[in-house]
Amino acid sequence: MENQTAIIIPARYGSSRLEGKPLLKACGKPIIQWVWEKASKVPMVDRVIIATDDERIYNACKDFGAEVEMTSANHKSGSDRIAEVAKRHPEIGYIINLQGDEPLIEQANIELVIKGVKFDDKADISTLVREIKDEDEVINPNLVKCIFDVNNYAMYFSCSKIPYERNVGKTKFYGHLGIYGYKKEALFKMTELPQTTYEMAESLEQLRALQNGMKIKVAVVENVPVGIDTMEDFEKFKAMVEG
């Protein structure tokens, strides 16, 4: 079947904050399985593929029945990893890059990302944002902010507070959620382009796309999926699902 929609989940064993994160278990299931099961329930998706460079993750995914592929260990980003997989599958036309550490992401959010890239001819990429209502979050450099135009196309992403408030109370602030949808050609183009000045300055890969004139469609969501970055995050998730 041509122009399939695929969720590709990049999964690395190494992590500066939580080594072996994808294989940590809650209710007897590794985190990567929780994410895979959530992705597999999305009706708009034709297939779900886990992309990893680690045999331990590969074998664990095989054990619970996932489609999983080995990739190069030299990739600098998740998008490079999913592009390697996508190039093996000419039948895939739309790719969703779902992080392997967000087991609580809602199906409706994934569907919004798919619709943003699949049903908008102008969009090369799609993603999600949510309104920030806490001033501490607005100024937190670990939360990426996004500004977008009246047609919901991203104008810029930054670790800084954007826009600058010369007139306080005249705008809302939006935080970026790290899930992307790509038209296949857009993913290949972005990963083959050299790094840009804004990307290198902010360490935000999506700025490479914007600086090269690509369009990123943004959808605003209410709920905020909690990612697992630390052992504390994992313990909270484990307590939540194990009661």
First-last Cα distance: 42 Å
Largest sheet: 7 strands, mixed
Strand residue percentage: 25-35%
User: Could you list the spans in which at least 5 consecutive residues all have pLDDT below 50?
Assistant: none
Q: Give the overall silhouette.
A: globular
Mean pLDDT: 93
How many β-strand stretches?
Answer: 11
The computed structural class is alpha/beta
Element-by-element helix/strand order: EEEHEHEHEHEHEEEHHHEH
Number of helices: 9
Radius of gyration (CA) equals: 18 Å
What is the spatial order of strands in the main beta sheet?
5-4-1-6-10-7-11
Fraction of helical residues: 25-40%
Explain what you see.
This protein is of the alpha/beta class and 243 residues long. Helices cover 32% and strands 25% of the residues. The chain contains 9 helices and 11 strands. It has a 7-stranded mixed beta sheet. Strand 8 and strand 9 (154-158) form a beta hairpin. Helix 3 packs across helix 6 (184-192). The longest helix is centred in the middle third of the chain and has 12 residues, at 107-118. It is globular, with a radius of gyration of 18 Å. The termini are far apart.
Describe the structure in brief.
Helices cover about 30% and strands about 25% of the residues.
Write out key terms for the chains shown:
243 residues, 11 strands, two-stranded antiparallel ribbon, 9 helices
Present the secondary structure layout:
Layout (H helix, E strand, L loop, with lengths): L3 E8 L13 E2 L2 E2 H10 L6 E6 L2 H9 L3 E4 L7 H10 L4 E6 L9 H12 L6 E8 L2 H4 L6 E4 L5 E5 L14 E11 H9 L4 H6 L3 H6 L4 E5 L10 H12 L1
